[in-house]
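Notes, Module 5: Reading structure tokens.

Key idea: the token line is not a picture. It is a compressed description, and you learn to read it the same way you learned to read a sequence, by spotting repeated patterns. We will look at two proteins. The first is printed below with its tokens.
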Amino acid sequence: MPETALSLTDRRVARAVELVWREAELLDRPDYAAWNELFTGDGIYVVPIDRDATDFAASLNMVYDDARMRRLRVNRMTEGYAIAAVDAARTVRTVSRFVPESVADDEVVLRSAQVLIAYKRGRHDIWAADLVHRIRLSAGDPAGDRIALKVVRLVDSDDAVPAAGFLP
């Protein structure tokens, strides 16, 4: 693929970056139902324990959510009494350092960095991660672009991780 095709100025890459930023904003709002709608029907959201894992289905993960599990996660965070929802942290995510890994007319794979600040019970926690998003581009309207894969590789994934229902 020509190097110019892997530029942040490529309209396809710009669409993918905008979707990732929209996702971060929805999570911080927190509008988990709208966040879930950003995924394709076969989309996967994964937080691996092993930072080098590539076969997520055969690896131990903190999170490995297909559509059903994402829906259950959203229900747990938004319906009824769940400690994860009642005592949820307020968050602010910054996603930057976008690097296009591959670009095609129907799909863009982006690597990026995320810093997440969570505030709960008078305490701030900092979470840092390398992200990979595989974005399926719609043929026309960018509003139809969807996340086919989101991988969150926490920098400290092999350490003890406290409960973090806000991690998406």
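Here is the second protein, with the sequence above and the tokens below, as before.
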Amino acid sequence: MIDALHHIQLAMPAGGEDDARKFYCGVLLFTETPKPAALQGRGGVWFEAGSVRVHLGVETPFAPAKKAHPGFQVTSLDAAIRHLKAHGVEPRTDTDLPDIRRVYVNDPFGNRIELLELR
């Protein structure tokens, strides 16, 4: 029934688009993609990196996702950690799994993001 994951939706507070751009484009190296004209009045912002799509939508009242999270696969977790630290983002380590090394960061709104490397 399901063919693929099309996008991930995360919540953000109203007016947070510039902070989202700074983090998702400036730190995680996503590219902003235009929202369809019919949805532009709702606020929020959309991003892509390769085949990964992330949509940030305005939620009122806003509450960050502290447990639920996307897991973004990276080629080199060590390189990703160096990149994050160079941008002032301190990743949190967690227990690695037999086939996965991983760290967590929060976006500017407190949403949990996992970065992982397959072994």
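Summary for the second protein:
- The longest strand covers residues 52-58.
- Residues 8-118 form a domain with the 2,3-Dihydroxybiphenyl 1,2-Dioxygenase; domain 1 fold (CATH 3.10.180.10).
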